[in-house]
Design brief:
Helices cover 9% and strands 39% of the residues. It is mainly beta. Strand 27 and strand 28 (380-385) form a beta hairpin. The longest helix is centred in the C-terminal third of the chain and has 14 residues, at 284-297. Bound molecules: 2-acetamido-2-deoxy-beta-D-glucopyranose (NAG) (2 copies). The site of one 2-acetamido-2-deoxy-beta-D-glucopyranose (NAG) has 4 residues, from strand 9.
Length: 393
């Protein structure tokens, strides 16, 4: 999709504004089998590429999303923006910004900031609307972005296309909120795509609700070793910028619920993996089967709510079943209770595999405590059960 037109980008990030409380402490156990990643990767491609150091960014958890720290402009200003593998454009609030409490970035004070000029001579406008109804409006520019690197020197990306927003929704305006979004999908303008061919689009992250973590790019983002499983990744013509996986089945305890025979069934991608969405969304017809299976085993008082929510008046995670997600390619992800149930208000626990959104989404909460590696050139996503809060502490 070309950036220089006033196109309406319908993209997906969803804030899930439950006040999440951590209620489970066990780590997921490794499911499925492990394979050596190098056997499936076209290894010649990586060894031919002289990647001397790997870029990385520090990340922090903020309620329901993960924020990536990056520096923008000259002199560099540090911002924190939502790490979003479900969208393309990287943007930040810019001065002047309507109602911004903290518009961190003032383009007039950066020597490397350049507006992108469209036909007619004015700056190219951008407009992004996310699935959760948040939005951003502004103009496109090129600017220098810096993140960290294993070499110890910053990884510098001059001339990176970004959006400079002058009107974004309230969620992006408060001091403790993200000041923008870092787009990391398959599109040519995503930050990882703009890093160039050397990186092969490789990136990895490990999410936990505690402390800081890292987002790795390039050779350091290869996920392998004991317990690693892989899922096939698909690029679909109708939505070419999303990273699609193919969900074959969900098991609730020992009850396996196949997608085969349901409208959800597919062989080349039926769900996107998205770091910018909190919960997991499935189509209602299939999600209902999962809910029914959960209902059958949970012996606790239901909380009357809408028909599509499955909530109980308890915070005892032992009452809930282990859910396994079976992705095509061999990734049978045995979920921790924390990945699939959320306690809010101290004593109400809900299943957070829910129905809704036009595109099914494998959200960030379900990915917690897996080291997740994206490898678009081999079309694989790797998952390695990991205590993410221990990984970089
Ligand atoms: C900001 O954008 C929203 C959504 O398009 C619009 O309703 C609002 O009027 C805009 N505000 C300003 C000050 O331009
Ligand atoms: C994960 O690592 C953290 C930090 O080292 C530690 O406090 C915690 O107990 C670990 N969790 C498990 C389940 O091992």
């Amino acid at each position: 999709m070309m950036s220089t037109a006033a196109t309406l980008f319908i993209q997906i990030i969803t804030f899930f504004l439950f006040s999440a409380t951590v209620s489970s402490s066990s780590t997921p156990s490794g499911g499925g089998f492990s394979i050596d990643l190098y056997q499936r990767r076209s290894s010649s491609r990586i060894s031919n590429t002289q990647i001397r150091s790997s870029p990385y960014a520090d990340t922090v958890f903020e309620k329901s999303v993960y924020l990536m720290k990056l520096q923008i402009g000259t002199p560099p200003i540090e911002i924190e923006a939502i790490l979003d593998t479900g969208s393309q454009i990287t943007w930040t609030n810019c001065f002047p910004c309507n109602d911004c409490i903290k518009p961190l970035f003032d383009p007039s004070k950066s020597s490397t900031y350049k507006n992108k000029i469209c036909d007619g001579g004015s700056p190219c406008p951008f407009e992004i609307n996310y699935e959760d109804r948040t939005y951003s409006r502004g103009t496109y520019a090129t600017e220098t972005i810096r993140i960290k690197s294993t070499s110890g020197k910053p990884y510098v990306m001059p001339g990176t296309t970004i959006g400079c927003s002058h009107n974004s929704s309230a969620d992006f305006k408060k001091p403790y909120k993200p000041s923008g979004v870092v787009g990391l999908n398959w599109g040519s303008l995503s930050l990882v795509s703009q890093m160039g061919e050397d990186m092969l689009g490789l990136m990895s992250y490990c999410f936990s609700p505690k402390g800081t973590s890292k987002l790795n790019f390039g050779s350091n983002a290869i996920v392998s070793g004991d317990g690693t499983v892989v899922a096939n990744m698909y690029r679909k013509k109708e939505a070419p910028d999303y990273y699609f996986l193919n969900l074959d089945a969900v098991s609730v305890g020992k009850t396996r619920i196949q997608t085969l025979g349901t409208p959800f069934h597919a062989s080349k991608g039926n769900i996107i993996i998205d770091s910018g969405t909190t919960v997991t969304y499935l189509p209602e017809s299939y999600c209902k089967k999962v809910r029914i299976a959960v209902e059958k085993v949970v012996k606790a008082e239901r909380v009357a709510s809408s028909e599509k929510d499955l909530c109980y008046k308890t915070n005892n995670m032992d009452l809930f079943p282990v859910i396994t997600m079976h992705f095509q390619g061999g990734a049978d992800l045995v979920m921790d209770k924390y990945n699939t149930f959320m306690t809010s208000g101290g004593e109400i626990t809900c299943l957070i595999i829910i129905s809704g959104t036009s595109t099914p989404i494998f959200g960030n909460r379900a990915q917690n405590n897996f080291l997740v590696g994206y490898d678009p050139s081999s079309q694989l996503v790797s998952f390695k059960p990991t205590n993410c809060s221990a990984l970089w502490s």
